[in-house]
Give the backbone structure.
Amino acid sequence: MAARSSWKGYLKISLVSVPVKAYTATNSAKAIALNQLHEPCHSRIKYQKVCPVHGAVSSDEIVSGYEYAKDQYAVIDTSELKKLRSESDKSIVVDQFVDEAQVDNRYLAGACYFLVPDGAVGQQAYALIRDVMRDSKMNGIAKIVLSNREQLVLIRPVENLIGMLVLRHADELKTPAAFSDEVVDTQLSDQEMQLTKQLMQGLYAESFDLERYPDDYTEKLTALIQSKVEGKELVTPEAHDEPQVINLMEALKASIQQVSPGQTAPKSQAASKSVRSKKTAAKKTATKKAKSAKSPRTSVAKKRKSG
């Protein structure tokens, strides 16, 4: 567990208050940062905070401001921002509960936290909220002040913990309708639908395991850096161009063979009907021949009987 929590306060549902601590749920140390260098001498590029009137300035001389007109700013001091916060701002206030499937993944902003009880007094209420959300498959929609601004968050059970995910507001997202005119209505055949369904079923997994997808880029970048430090050249396999498949049906059939060797692609209705017609015609022909072959024998037998 992290040595220091990112936030402390209360998880509030109506009159129920649970003291909680928030820990970031992501690792940032794994990312490899590359610095910008001056190519001729490999010296690191530095950025200075410069005032166009007085030149370079120190951090303690910098304040925040909002530009309300061209080159006109309303200066906002940090102490003034703190005064805007009340004691109630130190709470995660749940406004409503919704079915877990109701929240579109597009609203997830990326920042996520784990909430844990802050002390023994909140253990029972914490467990109660977590288990009821899990059993009823409901998530909470709440508000919290993070980084001096109000954030909309999703509260949901994550194994034996309660997770908190920051959400985007509706006006931060573009609607699908804005791009719908770029998608043309297309007639899809039954065979195309069946082939695509068969392909997806061949790639279906009962559960999602994130461990299946390691960070290959970071591993390759680490190997490249190590080889550079050791004065070696990293040997990479030669890239091969993928063959271009133009025919959709052939691509689907080849894909099914790749993901599910031995499976045969379903035939189209027209092809199946043609095969059935041929079989029926052949059967009728055989029956007709059998009757023709049988008729002379029947006539002879009748003559013999009558004689």
Residues 132 and 138 are 8 Å apart (CA to CA). Residues 1-25+87-172 form a domain with the Ku70; Chain: A; Domain 2 fold (CATH 2.40.290.10). The two ends are 109 Å apart (CA to CA).
